[in-house]
Design a protein that fits this description.
Length: 177
């Protein structure tokens, strides 16, 4: 008589097979709590969150000019405009980082002697802070570049130019308005 002809052996084998196929409570709980889809979605969400934080961190990496904030921010010019910077702080053919009266980052540029313009320093691609880089403005996040005289985008993924900030020069100071 063979082992598999023995009814008790068949019952034992069937019981063993049923036990192997039946879900273990601990294994089943773990599988329900951590499905492959949930793990992948959680991992992707974590990676996306880290990318957004890194991208929006701003900063002036690669900037050739030290960032300057308006020494008289909150002060008033002769006609009531807030002082953003001194004209002498912005090199001819270059630009400096500053802040408007509300603390938002801007770029003050002096493309030619005495010609001062200003732009929002918020990149039109993903909202990172643009910084002066030699004779252009550059976004440290994705490499968009802008003309420092016009704010026009000259390279990278930025879809549009930097918005102009209205400024004028009074008594050697750049003021809003």
């Amino acid at each position: 008589m063979k082992d598999n002809d023995n009814p008790s052996t068949e019952v034992a084998m069937a019981a063993n097979q049923a036990h192997e196929q039946a879900p273990n409570d601990e294994t089943q709980d773990w599988r329900e709590g951590f499905s492959r889809r949930k793990v992948l979605v959680a991992g992707a969400g974590t990676a996306l969150g880290a990318s957004v934080l890194a991208a929006c961190g701003g900063g002036g990496g690669g900037s050739s000019s030290a960032p300057t904030t308006a020494s008289g921010a909150g002060g008033s010019g002769a006609a009531g405009g807030d002082v953003l910077a001194k004209v002498s702080d912005a090199p001819v053919g270059g630009a400096i980082s500053a802040q408007d009266a509300n603390g938002k980052p801007i770029i003050v540029s002096q493309p030619t002697q005495g010609d001062v313009v200003a732009f929002s320093a918020i990149c039109t691609h993903m909202g990172c802070t643009v910084a002066p880089a030699g004779n252009q403005l550059q976004c440290p996040c994705h490499g968009s570049t802008y003309d420092l005289a016009t704010g026009e985008n000259t390279g990278g993924p930025a879809p549009s130019p930097l918005p102009k900030v209205q400024v004028s020069v009074r008594k050697g100071e750049v003021v809003e308005g």
